[in-house]
Amino acid sequence: MTSRTDDDTAADETSSGAASTAHRGPAAYRDLRAELAALTTEAFRPELSEIDRLPTLEIAKIMNGEDATVPSAVAAQLPRIAAAIDDIAARMSRGGRLVYAGAGTAGRLGILDASECPPTFNTDPAQVVGLIAGGPSAVVTSIEGAEDSRELAAADLDGLGLTADDVVVGISASGRTPYAIGAVEYARARGALTIGLSCNADSALAAAAYHGIEIVVGPELLTGSTRLKAGTAQKLVLNMLSTITMIRLGKTYGNLMVDVRASNEKLRARSRHIVALATGASDDQIEAALSAADGEVKTAILILLADVDAPTATRLLTNAEGHLRTAINAAKT
User: The dihedral of CA 290, 293, 297, 298: what is its sign?
Assistant: First the structure.
């Protein structure tokens, strides 16, 4: 096990066999190199071959220009992204889970998105899950060969006891990482909804999944370093998958995070700001409503907008399956 450098992520996303072919001789390397050479994310850009000789500001301008192309690549896939989100929301509304699976940078991005859902949307930690090839320690260190195993992905998912209401998102910039493909294949065989997120067209990952989302951002500034544009693209899509799903599940009221978990002073202050924005109530009214609601922002807002007590607000929200706008409308009838 070795410490990870920034450029290790290029191998994370594109080498599905480099470790295992190290003892096979030049022919095996030629085959793998030919396979990688066909990937857009691995393409060499001769116009940048002397980038190290440029002034720092010029390099920064070039890199910023590269990053600016990512949103348009994401935009080209919005219909596919929206269709996937609708299917995710339908399953999660029935109690299903959203599971991300990837290796290297892709795995870390999935874990990041999953870990931010509980404080933002008050989800159970088991509701949105991130898996990375090699296990939790692979978040900060390189686990050699872990990404090369479909079986490892199957074993990781087996521990979750997947059902048909669950969703598994395989993430891989190259679209060929065995761990991500194995996760999708295992999940699909068990009836779960599958999504393949990659940054190459016609990828094996997209072909294996029910929803294939391919964000083709082009060659990287540093050849094969998919922590750059590809990583940015993946982050943008994961933001959409989780955030819009939570909107569909009633975790927001308009653009307010009414299910925020007030676990620190900043979030407690934010909770009060959210209630103020939603209701226009005075500070004293907000404090009284939050106290009656045991700190639950959504309940406090309903108390103030519908002029009901806490038990009634709780009942209305339960009947509305947590959708605040629905509960407010029900209180008015």
Answer: negative
